[in-house]
């Protein structure tokens, strides 16, 4: 909890650069506040540079954060004040703010889920997904083209389906299509 604002800004920079809630208008408000209230942190020339609308907002924000880190502790603190004033929801969702909030909560009350765990649906990986998907497609093909009397030409579809499959499965599908022609 004793992190300096400079260290916090280093930690939060990646989040701020990727957060889409910081649009052009909000970045401009932060730049203007830093320029008007603290001209020693952001001069008129620097503010004009960071407010250039020809440069994408994400680039301007990244340059601003780098500039503030170079200016030192006071500049970083005033950036956090401006962020808190203009974009409170972003300020409270910063990684350093969330960490402080969790540290202040009783250790027994802390959530056991790490942020990366909420995105993991299972532990099997992409091959498991592909095998399940392939099995579902195979079952669907057999279901829809399984009744030879109901669908004409279904045996040729199963014959074509056998082209990209292994030898054992290909033999079964070809046997099934030849048997279906004889009915």
TrEMBL record:
Bilayer topology: Single-pass membrane protein
Signal peptide residue numbers: none
Transmembrane segments: 127-146
Keywords: Disulfide bond, Endoplasmic reticulum, Membrane, Mitochondrion, Transmembrane, Transmembrane helix
Keyword Amino-acid biosynthesis: no
Keyword Disulfide bond annotated: yes
GO cellular component: endoplasmic reticulum membrane; mitochondrial membrane
Compartments, record wording: Endoplasmic reticulum membrane; Mitochondrion membrane
Gene3D superfamilies the UniProt entry points to: Death Domain, Fas
Primary location group: endoplasmic reticulum
Quaternary assembly: Associates with BCL10 by CARD-CARD interaction.
Protein name as catalogued: Caspase recruitment domain-containing protein 19
Name of the encoding gene: card19
């Amino acid at each position: 909890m004793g992190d300096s604002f400079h260290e916090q800004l280093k930690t939060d920079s990646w989040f701020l650069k990727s957060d889409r809630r910081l649009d052009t208008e909000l970045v401009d408000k932060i730049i203007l506040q830093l320029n008007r209230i603290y001209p020693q942190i952001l001069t008129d020339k620097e503010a004009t540079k960071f407010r250039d609308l020809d440069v994408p907002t994400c680039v301007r924000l990244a340059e601003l954060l780098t500039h503030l880190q170079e200016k030192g502790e006071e500049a970083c603190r005033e950036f956090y004040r401006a962020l808190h004033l203009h974009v409170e929801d972003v300020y409270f969702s910063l990684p350093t703010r969330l960490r402080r909030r969790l540290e202040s909560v009783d250790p027994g009350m802390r959530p056991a889920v790490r942020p990366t765990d909420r995105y993991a649906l299972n532990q099997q990986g992409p091959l498991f997904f592909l095998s399940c998907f392939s099995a579902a497609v195979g079952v669907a093909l057999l279901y829809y083209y399984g009744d030879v009397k109901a669908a004409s030409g279904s045996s040729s579809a199963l014959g074509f389906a056998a082209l990209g499959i292994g030898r054992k499965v290909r033999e079964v599908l070809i046997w099934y299509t030849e048997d279906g022609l004889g009915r």
